[in-house]
Prior knowledge:
The protein is mainly alpha-helical.
Amino acid sequence: MLKEAELVKRPEYWLETIQNEIYRQVAAYLKDNNMTQTQLAIQLGVSKGYISQVMKGEFNYTLKKLIELSLAVGKAPVIVFKPLEDTTKSDKEEFSLPSSSSLDRVAEPGMPYTSLEE
């Protein structure tokens, strides 16, 4: 088990955190607009496979693609840089490093959308 202060220093943690949030935003956009992944691919001018990769968390985004995806779903891509110690709750709390399979669980069809704002 890793303490949160150790976990937030790992690039894998931040990559998975961002991938999960992109999934949530795209899934919400599809649901809110009653769209399929194929329709979104057409709207963006990308392949259906590209959208499938996004939804499975199997895509390592370039900054340009992150911005394009964000704008396509009506969101502003705001990146905030802050000291690592400001991202931890407590040095006493422990967290497990996410496994690669956790992204597969997030992207399973039929899973309910849960907003981080709720």
